Structure formats: C-alpha cells, structure tokens
Amino acid sequence: MDKLKAIRSFVAIADAGSFTAAATALATSLPSVVRQLAGLEALLGARLFNRSTRHVALTEQGRLYLLHARSLLAADAEADAQLQADQSEPQGRLVITAPVLFGQRYLCPAINRFIEHYPKLSVEVHLLDRLVNLVEEGFDLGLRIGEMHDSSLVGQHLADLRRVYAAAPAYLASSGTPTTPAALREHNCLRSTQQQGHWMFQQQGKNMPQAVSGRLVFNQVAPLVEACVAGLGIGHFSIYQVAPYLQSGQLQLVLEDYELAARPLHILYPHSKLLAARSKALIAWIKQEISVVRATWE
Hints:
Layout: H1 3-16, H2 19-26, H3 30-44, E1 49-51, E2 56-58, H4 60-88, E3 92-98, H5 100-117, E4 121-127, E5 141-145, E6 153-161, E7 163-167, H6 169-175, E8 189-192, E9 198-203, E10 206-211, E11 217-218, H7 221-229, E12 234-238, H8 239-248, E13 252-254, E14 263-270, H9 277-293
Parallel strand pairs: 3-4, 3-5, 8-11, 8-12
Antiparallel strand pairs: 1-2, 5-14, 6-14, 7-12, 7-13, 9-10
Helix pairs in contact: 1-2, 1-3, 1-4, 2-3, 5-9
C-alpha cells in the first residue's frame, strides 16, 4: 500500500463527506478509494470513519489523525515545490573537498566565481590531503587525483595529470641536467615525507625505483615547490603543482622520457544521491574551469 496515497484518500473523504465525492475529487474509482481507506485503517489499527449507507463521519481518532494528515500532505507539497524551485534555479548549500594545493590554486578561485554567478548558493570548501569518505563525512562533491576504487561513488573525468620532474634553470646550469634516473645520485633531490627516499620512474612500461637523497624534506608540497623554484634542487611533482612556473620559465622539466603514467583527476559524488540542480551546476562550472587550464598540464 502507498501510505501517502491512502492519506490523500482519507483527507479527501473527510473533506467531501462521502466516498463517491472523494473519488470524483481524486479522479479515481470508488473501489480504489474504499481500498485505500481500508488499508490505512488496517495499518493504523484504528477506525477513522463511522459509516452508514448515506453518510460517513469522522471518529474521535479520525479527527485527531486528520490534523496530522493535513500537516503531512502540506509538508509533502512544500518539499515538492522546493525541489522544483531548486531544479529551476540552483539554491541552497554545497560542501566540497579537494587536495590542499589543488584547491588553493584552482578550485577556490573557481568557487569564488561560481558563487558570484549564483547568488542563492553557498559553498563550504574543505581542503584536505587525505582520502576523504564523502558519504560518512557529509560531502556533496569531491575532487580526487588517482584511480577510482570506491564503487559507492560516481566519478566524472576532468583531466589526466602528468607526474613530472623539474628544476630551476639556474640549478641545472650549475649542477648539470640528468639524462637518466641513475644520474640523480649526483643531485640534491627535494623530497616530501611521503616519498621515503626513492622516486619511481617508468621505461618501456616497466616501473623503475631510484634511490634519491637531498638536504631538504617537506611534509607539504607548497614549500617543496618554492625550494625548487629557488634553485635548491630537483623535485618530483604532479604537473598542476608546477604548471605556472613551467609557463613562466622559472622551472623546466627533466627526465620526460621516464615519467610515470599520468593520474586521472575526477569529480566525485555519492552513487546513491539524486543530483540536485546546485550540484549539477557546480560540476558543470568546475569542468568548464578545468578545461581552460588543462592545456597547461599537457
């Protein structure tokens, strides 16, 4: 039994004063209205009407239930109206997450332009360098770099991000340009705490680890990039982290023939969620923004 449909039948009977008039008001058959009421009374375990051959009258329990039924139908109508308004003009609140540096450099500027364009929307941004559980942590959307392994999420592909090795021209002029991974043994390699003393390379489809060392180790990417731009050594980066400096000539790529396969960038949302207009609008906005800068990552 459709309980909401049965409640509508109950309210229609109370308003019309008869089963026949209620059926007419609902544009349905008399047997259907009778069945809906019988099912509701059985579900509630209470008699809602006193019936005679010509008239129906609410019982005391029926009068009490009618108040709640009207409130329920009003709330349902309001929810429908709100959803329709949301679909026609995006409004409400969105919560999105992204890696820290990517968010600072690309997502946050895009979000700033987005909320200027949609004055009825608000956005809460969480920049986190960890794997976020979108469902459990209450996020509407998330940007993630790497292969998708969570079947509870839907992903839309935005770009492929090269994994590159870069250094400042001044550093290469003074220390030489490495032509093979093994040559890095003679260089100061700027590392993150996650790289654990070796970098991975690829040649002819095979991964090749190479031990590296250096005098600077950071737990965040931003100071690692700054040290590289300052000419203090060679760094291993995702292309988006150094793209502006490559464009300006402050950094240049090395060992391009040994790069690992590019990693995909996706925008994700929970599989079970019916996408609201506000989510669709933000996804479309981010895709457009990324399409503008994607050429600098190739």
